[in-house]
Amino acid sequence: MRDALDAMVRRLPRRRTLALVGGAVVLLVAIVVAGGAAYFAAGLGPDADAVAAVEADPNVSVDRTAVGTAVRDGPVTSSTVGLVYYPGGRVAHESYVPTAAEIVAASDRDAFVVVVDAPLNLAVLAPDRADRVRERYPEVDAWAVGGHSLGGAMACRHAAGNAEAYDALVLHAAYCDRDVSESGLDALSVLGGADGVIDAERERASRSNLPADARVVELDGVNHAGFGAYGPQPGDDPASLSPDASREAVGNATGTWLSERGAVTRDGPSRSVSDRAPGAVRSGAPVVAG
């Protein structure tokens, strides 16, 4: 059989043989690319119930735009502080809508969060998508940029090259691989005490890339997946806090810090999303600042 096949190949014109081989290679590459694209496009999350709870809250507005999903609890004006938020790798961007709602609720300052809709759920494919967000909301004067996991790393890279456009950098279960220590940015790093995904040694070593006065906060009982609403994540450690309580802790740490970035405050006290939902009771996570 093999001899017959070899003889057949020898009888084929060389160009035709090369064309067949080339076509097979192209087909194989197309299959691999399509499979990879489908894998990342499927993404993790979102938790439909958690997102629906935010949408049902009369005090919160969820705006879906061409650049991402914006979460706010008031009008966007020149006194509003905006946070452009990059999602974690292979996580659907709307998985962070519940976290964004907690951030907005915890802030004493008028704030809103825009979660970037990244191609194939990979922020690395749209590292400068934050530019489009700022262009969409020209009335906003104060901006922070941040993200979760890979999204946090991409936010840091974007901030490193565009520091003049931002006031602050927010990292959630992430670390900077670019030096922003002399950028003039305020910086917040929120970590989970039960995070089994982040490379803890690299995170600690990378703190020298942050400004000297950066605030590092570790939330007891929060794991890597606790920063969003997308279910368990492979390789993660168990969380002692529920997903709702984890997101509330992340939101409180971030929203209160954003409040300190400026003097514009609300007329009334800030409230957690859980305070707005009748019958919902959550316990906050202990916070250890470093």
Automatic annotation (TrEMBL):
Domain Alpha/beta hydrolase fold-5: 83-245
Region described as Disordered: spans on this chain: 227-290
One Gene Ontology term of the molecular function aspect: hydrolase activity
Any Pfam family: Abhydrolase_5
InterPro entries named among the record's database cross-references: AB_hydrolase_5, AB_hydrolase_fold
Membrane-spanning segments: none
Official protein name in the record: Alpha/beta hydrolase fold-5 domain-containing protein
Top-rank taxon, per record: Archaea
